[in-house]
Amino acid sequence: MRINVFGTRGFPLIQGGVEKHCECLYPLLSDKCDITVFRRKPYVNQKNRNADNLGIHFVDLPSTKIKGIEAALHSFFATIYSLFQKPDIVHIHNIGPAFFSPILKLRKIKVVLTYHSANYEHDKWGWFAKKLLKWSERIAMNTADTIIFVNKFQQQKYSDEIQKKSFYIPNGINSAVISQQDDFITSLGLEKQKYILSVGRITLEKGFDVLIKAFLKAELYDYKLVIAGGVEGEEVYFKTLSGLDTKGQVVFPGFIQGNKLSQLYSHAALFVLSSYNEGFPIVLLEAMSYHLPILASDIEANKMVEMDISNYFPVGNVSALTNQIKETLLKPYSSQDYSLEEFDWQSIADQTFNVYASKNSKDHSL
Predict the structure, then answer these.
(1) Quick one: which of 154, 167, 304, 331 has the most CB atoms within 10 Å?
(2) Residue 359: predicted pLDDT
């Protein structure tokens, strides 16, 4: 089967949850399918341009990094490209990039949609953009032959008609690579198990302001807070976050991967995910794979993993998070065990392939 993929900025080594999802998924499908992934040229560089070892064809299309235009422009080009190429299936990631999907039906191309998150709930979008995303959602849901939800709670919100052509297939996690090295964390002025870690792109919905305020309010002066993520179009928010730290206790190393990220996970004392909105947070699975103590906001997406109620705090509640941070860090550190069997990437790839192979939205046998 020939599968065209868009709705991601691309991979490898490109920041984002959808990007990580695609980077883990498609190499596992490349021996069964002829996969073409459309990347956005502004994110392609010397480090990630050549990825022949993944067994995937990449087509790098013109785009921009302007918020609100980037995804739409790229999706239009990828849709037109696919219209003339006519693959067996076009797999679109998220509702915004599926806006032009009805064009694909002109040539009777099957469309698979992966619904990662309700983008219109994100605070970074203005009124008009949210309306447009909701419109795009209606188009995407009605046009798609099959819909994959990474969040089962999101799936349950839709009509029986949508449910009949939908599957729940979660995000996954690779085995953790525990690092014994500490040169990177030392370069950041950190000590082993003397810092809190949070990972994610610097955007409003991640709630990093809540985390910083709670951490500073805890007055744990022998600890630092590390927020590892890049800034893309949210410079004002990042400036606000930087201004909250008046005592030099918060470290922003930017977007990192590989051994550097492994070091941060391997030696952290606590992982905190303070998001207001998530599709299905891969970073939460990553923290679990490193057996870290975890505190996560009590949103539906974070509750999809099996953790004790004590691992959650009321979303946006600075005082509650402060108390739980202090309670966790004032106890002796101990690694935690979590159930991650459901989130195996090979199993997820097999389920996705079965969706492709069925090519019939009425056939729900996985």
Answers:
(1) 304
(2) 67
SS3 225: strand
**Cα angle vertex 228, ends 222, 234, to 5°?**
120
C-beta of residue 311 within 8 angstroms of C-beta of residue 201? no
**Cα–Cα distance measured from residue 96 to residue 120, given in angstroms and rounded to the nearest whole number:** 9
- Determine the average pLDDT of the residues in 200-225: 96
Query: What span, in angstroms and rounded, lies between the C-alpha atoms of 111 and 102?
Result: 9
Among candidate residues 278, 314, 299, the one with its CA nearest the CA of residue 121 = 278
Token pair of 349 as six digits: 């790839």
pLDDT band at 114 (very low <50, low <70, confident <90, very high): very high
> Which residues lie across from 148 on neighbouring strands?
114, 167
Give the three-state DSSP class for 329: helix
d(CA 220, CA 194): 10
Quick check: 108 pLDDT over 80? yes
The answer to whether 255 and 276 are in contact (CB under 8 A) is no
Buried b (16+ CB within 10 A) or exposed e, 259-274: ebbbbbbbbbbbbbbb
Q: Which residue has the tokens 């709630």?
A: 207
**3-class DSSP state of 173:** strand
For tokens 């918060």, the residue is: 250
For residue 87, say if its preceding peptide bond is cis, omega within 30 degrees of 0: no
C-alpha span between 141 and 350 (Å, rounded): 23
- Per-residue pLDDT of 44-75, as tens digits, reads 998 888 887 788 999 999 888 887 788 899 99
